[in-house]
Amino acid sequence: MLPKLQKRTESTYIVLFAAVEAAGRLKYSRDMTDSDNQNLYIYRKVSPRVDLPALEEGILAFWRENRIFEKSLEAREGGPEFVFYEGPPTANGKPGSHHVLSRIFKDIFPRYRTMCGYHVPRKAGWDTHGLPVELEVEKQLGISGKQDIEKVGIARFNELCRESIYRYLEEW
Prior knowledge:
Blueprint: H1 10-22, H2 34-38, H3 52-65, H4 68-76, H5 97-115, H6 131-141, H7 146-152, H8 154-164
Helix pairs in contact: 6-8
């Protein structure tokens, strides 16, 4: 059995029923009473004991098996292209809640443009160079600045920087 509609204004019913009618599920009549409206069921019942992780895994498996993402790219190939330059996370830090928020934005905009018909190739990466990496290694060594780095040796310092970018790989 499906859940009942909540009481809405007549204009909401008209829009809702027009959409449902277009889907071929039921017909709308202006003569319907509130009791008629309360007895309409248009949504499939969802168990309150739904296993969301299992549901997500099932959806992901379906997408993988049917190459849904790849097909979305192939279907739009040759169309107008939307380029989204995403700033990658720094590889030498632990993920935090701010990374989740940025990943949402990095997903929403390309996904929206894809739905608008654009070809949106994605290429993610890591920021594995620069100041964040150097600062972490300096902190590890208890040093600060160019002169201290030269005392350690630039080759050794660079080697430690390269090693540091793999330290948190599993957490990502």
